[in-house]
Amino acid sequence: MWIPTEHEKYGVVLVSFRGTVQHGLPLEIGDTVQILEKCEGWFRGFILKNPNIKGIFPSSYIHLKNAHVKNKGQFETVIPVEDSVITEMTSTLRDWGAMWKQLYVKNEGDLFHRLWHVMNEILDLRRQVLVGHLTHDRMRDVKQHITARLDWGNEQLCLDLVPRREFSMVDPDEISVTELYRLMEHRHRKKETSAPASTHHLFVHVKSLMSTNLGEELEVFFHIYDGRENRPLSERFFVKLNKSGLPKSPEKTERQCTLFVDLGSSDLRKDVYIVVHIIRIGRMGAGEKKNLCSVQYRRPFGCAVVSIADLLTADSKDDHLLKVYACNTESEWYQIHENIIKKANSRYNLSGSNTGLSVALQLLHGDIEQLRREYMVLFTRGVSITRKLGFSDVIMPGEMRNDLYITLEKGEFEKGGKSVARNVEITVYVLDIDGQILKSHVAAGSGEPGGDEYHSLVLYHNNSPRWAEQIKLPIPVDMFRGSHVRFEFRHCSTKDKGEKKLFGYSFVPLMQEDGRTLPDGTHELIIHKCEENTSLADCSRYLKQPFSKTNLPSNNQTLKGTKESFWITSFLCSTKLTQNGDMLDLLKWRAHPERINDSLSKLKEIDGSEIVKFLQDTLDTLFGILDESSQRYGLKVFDSLVHIINLLQDSKFQHFKPVMDTYIESHFAGALSYRDLIKVLKWYVDRIVDAEHQDHIQQVLKASEYIFKYIIQSRRLFSLATGGQNEEEFRVCIHELFMSIRFFLSQENKSTSPVAQTQAVFLRTFPAVYGELLKIFTVREVAGFVRETLGTLPTAVHADCLEAVKLQCIAKTVESQLYINPESRCILLPVVLRILQAHMQEQRDLVMCARILTSMLSLIKKEENGTAEPVVSEEVELIVESLLGVLLRTILEISNRPQPAGPAMRLQFQDVTGEFVACLLALLRQMSDRHYQQLLQAFSSKDNLRDFLLQIFTVFRILIRPEMFPKDWTVMRLVTNNVIITTVLYLSDALRKNFLNDKFDYKVWDSYFYLSVIFINQPCLQLESFSPSKRKKILEKYGDMRVMMGCEIFSMWQNLGEHKLNFIPAMIGPFLEVTLVPQPDLRNVMIPIFHDMMDWEQRRSGNFKQVEAKLIDKLDSLMSEGKGDETYRELFNSILLKKIERETWRESGISLIATVTRLMERLLDYRDCMKLGEVDGKKIGCTVSLLNFYKTELNKEEMYIRYIHKLYDLHLKAQNYTEASYTLLLYDELLEWSDRPLREFLNYPMQSEWQRKEYLHLTIVQNFDRGKCWENGIILCRELADQYESYYDYRNLSKMRMMEASLYDKIMDQQRLEPEFFRVGFYGKKFPFFLRNKEFVCRGHDYERLEAFQQRMLNEFPHAIAMQHVNQPDQTIYQADAQYLQIYAVTPIPESQDVLQRDGVPDNIKSFYKFNHIWRFRYDRPFHKGTKDKENEFKSLWVERTTLTLVQSLPGISRWFEVEKRELVEVSPLENAIEVIENKNLQLRTLITQCQSRQMQNINPLTMCLNGVIDAAVNGGLARYQEAFFAKDYIMNHPEDGEKIGRLRELMFEQAHILEYGLAVHEKFVPQDMRPLHKKLVDQFHLMKSSLGIQEFPAYVRASPVHFTNGSPRTCRNSVPNIISPDGGRGVARRSLPSYPAVNRYSSSSLSSQASNEVSNITGQSESSDEVFNMQPSPSTSSLSSNHSASPNVTSSAPSSARGSPQMAEKHKHSRENACLSPRERPVSAIFPNPLDPAQRAPCHQIGDTTLPRSDPNLSAPDKVRPTPSSWSLDSVKEGAPSFSDSFGKLQCPPVPPRPPYSAGSSAKNMRSQSPVTSRSPQKTTVPPFTPSPTECQSTSLVSNSPVLSGSYSSGISSLSRCSVSEASGTELPAGDHPSHPLPPPTTLPNSVSSSSDEPIRRENKTPPPYSVYERNNPRRPVPLPHSLSIPPQTDPPALPPKPHQLRTGSMKLDGTSDPRVPRPRPLPRKVSQL
Known about the structure:
This protein is α+β, with helices and mostly antiparallel strands and 1971 residues long. The protein contains 63 helices and 44 strands. Strands 1, 2, 3, 4, 5 and 6 form a 6-stranded antiparallel β-sheet that branches. A 6-stranded antiparallel barrel has the order 34-35-40-39-38-37. Helix 1 (84-105) packs antiparallel against helix 2 (109-131).
């Protein structure tokens, strides 16, 4: 049975549990669980991080921990009973764990690894704390370390700042808000700026000396040297190195490491250096050989210098290698370091190229105790301390030091009878009073222990040596008296045994007879002659002699006159000994009573460090003198006492204050002194007002704290001694003293007057007296003293400085022990509030005011149950009454004040705002119901109450601002919000009672609602963005404050009644923002308000247009900020629909809700799309959808224009320049050419409508230019030019015309890539709504083929599944919860057929119309209808042709548009067969022409094509068509197909004829090794002819098998544009690319080849191989053929052909490229190098079936028929073909066989042309199209070199023919069925044309204008027909035979009259609302 647990409440999981049992709860190691029930070894409970899931788990898996339970019962919470630091560590590490993994995901490796180390470190420290074996101090250090690490991690991860007190987290409810603010600010400041350390220390670790010539031991001396004052700053650090250059004692680190301590900040400058002197110990000369002499000398080796400033920037971890220098002459050794610093290079050099001293140097900051904690290893391992010379900047009491430093400076010695100078060595000894040598008291420096003696270094042969060696003598104080230092001088001989011979000595006593020590400074010592060591044994003998030349009596001339001298410098650093005689006189005052007066006067002149050394002795002396002769010396003693007290105020000696405090408490014995002290103090105070000089009085008042301490302590001693006698007298004296003080404080003075300054001095020290007075007087008495004293201060003070000091005094009073007592607080509070209120009202000294207020409010606390003590309640009441209003005004004033400039001022400014805010919050939190009632009742009028409410609401809005507190102060923000919502709940009652119904005040209510809205929306309350643990903590402590405020808003709204109309529509936006907060309860509360608004608006105006407009406007901006979600859309829809069910205006309400919901759908999709990184189709499509919605459904013009520009920016980013232009046109069309002023909008300045439209035009033209859509740019250029012309702005008109001209040039000169189009279907519910279950056609990117496009779409929609078929999907796909993509290529169907069918238009121009302004697209799918005949599948092979119509033409404002309409047409097998054969015939003709014109250097493509048609064994070739469609059964069953069967027969005959001619051409060019294949083809062709039953070709076929008018047959339905060389028009020869016929992808063509493998074997190439195309292109002359594609499924290739006169000039010829390969077969530049043309090769595309075959009506008969029958022989081809080695462009086409007359039965008439040579006009005429023969002549075009047309070229257009024919010969033209249609008259060419004249013929045709970019209904400008090209009515040219396909009828509409699509009208432009 499950029993609720009593004690087992909380535990940690020890073992993971999978939870496989029924109701089992899976657990991981380390999870914390809360236990609810237990049963037989099992617990039931939940994991704390996921309390919603409860389950059971084994009790043995849980480690139970003690816990404290709150709210026992259903909603109990468990808090573990453990150290708060441990709890915080655990929860913090859990939070970090998840974030740490995210760092890895985000690739933030550096922080990831650092955090990992810190987490491990914290876990290790946590283990130490939990074990509990740490000492108290160590535990403190560990906790401090833990909290530092936790704070670091929180800061790095941008988590909240944790308020702490003594390492423990603080509960904000348990402390005052002001205290919380102080803690937060303290931690923030600590984090922001760490205070710079005042003391610094240099760590030195000697590693080794690297040198090649070592071999002797070394001594290394370090010291810090001041280069500015040229003196050492520290004692020396001494390290001994062995012969290898390594430390002698490596195991003793203190011998190698030192800490130069107590460097001040002033010592860290560039001219302070670390100086290293190196001394070698060995022979006199460094290179001397070893001899009998074993004596060692200390000799100079080298010196190194490094600046301390370099260590501040260098990496402390790196070792430093110091260069070692040696001096050139030994006499310079003493100043080598100075020479190195001064860079006197001539005086020193490197001691060796490889010599260097390796040391580690590191600067450490902080006091020495702090270093001991932080660098514990350093101190435990061992480090010697190297002190400063002298005391540090701060002298600490208790510091014991007694060091005498002596520097051996120099000596002057005589030769002593020697021929050379001496080698002098000094030996130093310290001897005590008995003449015994003091052991271990001579130290060369720190690092090595002291020795008994010291040997100086030896300078070779130098009688005036300068050593500059410093030694340290740490002699105990008690040994100083009587001790002396002896210096022995010896000559070190280098001869004999190298003995050291004594020749003299000097000495110096350490203390004088009067007790003073040896004074600091340089001393010139006498050298006494002595050659025997024994004479020095008795020191008493020589001590009687003089030691210094300065002290010699004047009569002792013998010693004074001697030249020999020895100089030393001494420096004493002692805390016990003095060199000052005046100090000694004062201390020995009893011995010389007559000197007391003098000694007291001289006390002020004694150095402070001497006084503090003997502080206790000095004070005893002063009070001893006062006790004995107070009348005589009272004033002097008082002044001396004041001097000493003020001396301790100095920063250098401030640490001695505790010494004085201890003295007063423990050693002071002046029981009677208080009388004299009070008397003298009062005497000084009384003289203040009248005294002229206030300086001394101010010094007295400055010392008043300690004077009162002495007075009080003296009185206490007296009371103890006498049992409390004279108490009343003492009180009277104190009262009189305070009366004197009050009198001088009450004086009103100007700020400059001395009295005012004296008042300020007293007020600064006065608060320090309170504590002393409390030792004798009661709290109330002291409070009375203070109140009366502060109360006497004048209110209207003119002195600003005194005002500031007065506030400082108040601040110290409030912070004192006196104020903490509630009794005294009642007395002092009114005075404090009065002064504070006065300052705050005048906005003066706000920083101090904030400090005072903070201290006051931090003392007021509520009890546990929320009630306050009566005293506290009274205080709160007083503060509220005095300060609440002024506090609110102050916060408002500060917040509205401009920020100060300086960073320090700005920091202070921020501080004061935060302080005041904390004070306000603390005060409001302390206020109870009673306080609020009293506050609200205190207002005398409604206006005052109104002003107060407005003020407090405004302040609350300021508090909610994000910048109010630093971003990581979440704790502070939550407390603020809690206080705000509590206060607002109190004040809302006042609002309801006082400002409703007839007393309604809009401003107050509006302020209330506005505050509520921004309260709910503030980021720190959005719990959804927090971690689960943080969210749980906030909810437990405060609940969801948003819901509370939401309920309050709803309640207040309901109370408004009819006044609601005042807030419609103003509050719609704010309330909408509230409902978008993702909190379900809040949404449920707030959304119904919209129903209320709709209802009231309906009542007022009969509709709710205002509500709708505001909702729509705000939704856009709010959702673009990331607010709202799909849940909100559904909730909004459902709640409001339910609310309006019973309303009379239900229909219009539903409409509004539906509109808003649809807008939300689009906005959510738009936002989701915009989150993606790169610009893609999804983003653009979504923007287009939203833009159209705003325009069509909402009619929101401004939003529409905004999204136009967003779309424009997206296109520019994606480099869709054409689409960008079309997008900007939408805005351009809204504007008119007017002078109406437009406001500043988006990035547009304020300007007129005309200027903005002009700017837009120019921008659009520029983008059309970049998108190579020049035709559209020309339209806009013309429109702008018209405007400039109308304003006579000829300058801009000229520019515009030039721009227009440049666009025309670009059309003719530059290549354009022809895009592919793809149909994309988006199926499934997972797509955004604007794509869902819709199909689109998309314009591909440049060079983008189907595979690349598919991949791009799949990348954009990574979750989509690509459908592998092209059939329309069924409903299951439509309704699936997935994404399906269906993609295939489609063919565009151009609209402007008139341009495309016009023969005089170059392909460059035509290509624009083939791929622009396309509404319709086509896709063909082959399929079998009925039963498939296995023998002949062509019988049932149908084609399903789908035509897609778009909602807008492409290109447009997007790269894709939705399909509006689908049309399905089925093409019968017979029609399909006709198309297939037509395409194959065209392909054959093209290849034959290319071969003839030598454009193909490799004949393989023609070979394979012929082979594929002739040897079509795969499907039976043409025979299959015969079987299928010529069978009697078929003809009988399909009588309607008679004409089509006839057409098929004609095409088959035509194909055979073309094949025959192709074989003839093939024979001429076929290589020798392929002759067998050719012979096989010829044999098979005869078989094929016989199988077709062809004996002789009909007349219409025989005429001319290959050549066509304009170079291309017009029998094909679809035109493929040529790819033209830009250089063609300039006569630049280039190579044209050979094309290869595409394979029909769908139909089983009868023309496929069985012999293709055979061809491959012969040529070494495979038909499917890319190598087929890797052929050398041949040079070509002007090419005139247009390429026409067949069905989109059959891509045909039509290479260019050339025909011209044999000697045609180079500049009249041009070349072009043809590429009509299918997407997979197109060559790339790597296969076809094009050195002459850097432009990109444009791919070719098919166009739709509306490009019908057409005749060439402007071609005269002689152009079409060759005159000489004999030219039909193939030999003529040979004769006419020039050599390939000729220059480019001089290739002559072979003669073409003449066209034979029609056979009998033909209705053609034989007619003869009257003109021998004719020309065709390039102008399109009104004559209906005529069909030329499939084998017509090809004409060559001329290119004009006129200036107007320079650089242009002709391609694929009819032009003037230059045929080399005889003038006398005539030609016959077979007549067609249309004799009535006239042809233009032929133009006779001069003879020079046929003789290769360079005279050009000017073309007079005009290119029709491009399709309008606006697609408007405006009629096109009519193009006038030039007179020279007009058609005379009398012309009756011979008729041409009809095109065979014109005879066809049926469902395929092949009559050439397909309806061009009517351009869609755009809506007329609307006026722009001042945009």
